[in-house]
Amino acid sequence: MNKNLTCIECPKSCELIVDIENCRVVKVSGNQCKAGESYCLAEIENPMRVLTSAVLGEGLALKMIPVRTDRPLPKAKLLEAMAEIKKIRINKPVKPGDVIVNNFLGLGVDLIATRECL
Q: Which of 18, 22, 51, 68 is the most buried (most CB within 10 A)?
């Protein structure tokens, strides 16, 4: 099976053609640098995403406090992560970069605030 991807690793934005067999990358063509091949491997075999969202603020100036993960997490865990985020309530002031949840979902990523809220 072939899949077309646009590489986002460098400004060239190469149009990649990826040959996939048994959920594994067999061949990559169209890349003008090694970053394209690495991008395809990661995107097909183990896609990762930084999650951005908001958590409920209680008794603070903001009702919703923007948050994100400090590193990418597996794309397959995004729905589970969003379900957990819905349960979080913040009732103390936070600054950008403050850790809201350490080791979020046991994945080794932290959920951090991205805006100050007093």
A: 18
